[in-house]
Amino acid sequence: MRIGFVELVLLLFIASITVGPNAALFVDRWLRRAQRTSAAAARRKAQLEAQAAIEREALMTRFRVASNIFALLMLAALAYGLLLRPIDTPPKAYTTPDVRQDTGAAQTALSADSKDGWKPGGYLGVDCVRTQDGLVYAAAYNGAAMKKRQSDLVRTDGGHTAAILSVEGELTGFAFDADGDLWLTVVTPSGGALCRARHDSWGTSVEQVVTQIDGAPLGVLSAVETGPDGKVYFAVSTEAAAKNGLESALRTELIAHTGTGCVYVYDPSARTVEQVLGGVAGAAGLALSEDGRTLYVSDLGERCVWAVDADARELTAGGKHCESFVSGLPGYPGALALDEDGILYISYRWTRSGWLEKHADSTLLRGIALRAGENIQKKLFKLPADAPCAEAVDTADGSWKQTFSGRELDGCTAVCPAGSKVYFGAAGSASLLSARV
């Protein structure tokens, strides 16, 4: 049976009337259900986003609170570290020394020619220089940290160089006596020691002679001198801790100004130790006149050199029978040396610090500097190229002979006249600089 076009149209019309409303209802219900599902999903998403936002805000609030607490703790730790933390050397107020006017001495530049200097070898620095029988001796060290430091006594005849003696720690000074024995001041992290190496046993044994006084360990030793009568003078720069060496102790004394430096004399025949001078704000160098009667002591903090009778005992810096030979120096005096003509050479560890002396009466600010640590303290003290690294003065009449400058240095650690030259040791440099005289 054939279905015509008309019949097909009628059948589709009847089917649409019969089925159409149900299909429309189904589609409508499906669409509504889909809309409800979508709306519910949107609501759930919004709820989740809102919940996430609340959790984020709560987390951020906790983080901000923790950050604020951490910042407060850091500020408290910083305040404690810089203001309240106990230190071994509480600073004392003092009166700033005067500044000397220009002396009119001849200006001498340090030589730029490497042939005029001397490089002892693969060392990190030089602490002391001496001459004996036409030879030049230098105390040179390896190891930046004190607990790993070893010092050698190096000798040269102008050509050949040799290490003749080694010690553990920092060899801050040495001197020869009339018998040819070698006297040394050595500093280790545990303290200082005056030592002797006999002329027939160099390089094999170093005898510790003085390690304590009245039961107390020696502090940071800085220099040693021997007299024609066999007595040995040695300087304890300060009572500051020895764990970081001489340079650190001198910086500490400059900032703290405790005035605890002393000079002692050891009599080898009687085996006694007596105090010659006390109350020095950093006893950084010694020199003894050729006749052994006058002892010169550099006072770091007071920027002067004291001249005292070598036979005197229990003197106080600036007190009775202790007069300043030169004062108002342009820098902080360190190592001293006398030549055969009585010319005293004064080396300068650092040039005068304006900030430090401006706050001489402020123990608070200097206490902060002491607590701030080594790196901050180092920035306070330098030797610019235009500042003198050493000066020479005639001990006979007090006239100034020469001023040495021309190199930017971290500090001048040693000075030694040798014929027509003067050798200089520089902090952080194993090379000896020189100048003509």
Automatic annotation (TrEMBL):
All residue ranges annotated as the SMP-30/Gluconolactonase/LRE-like region domain in the record: 225-347
GO molecular function: hydrolase activity
InterPro entries for this protein: 6-blade_b-propeller_TolB-like (IPR011042), SGL (IPR013658), SMP-30/CGR1_Lactonase (IPR051262)
Domain of life: Bacteria
Transmembrane segments: 6-27, 65-83
Family matches, as Gene3D superfamilies: TolB, C-terminal domain (2.120.10.30)
Keyword tags: Hydrolase, Membrane, Transmembrane, Transmembrane helix
KW Transcription (keyword) present: no
Family: Belongs to the SMP-30/CGR1 family.
Alphabetized PANTHER family for the sequence: LACTONASE DRP35, LIPOPROTEIN-RELATED
Protein name: Gluconolactonase
Origin species: Faecalibacterium prausnitzii L2-6
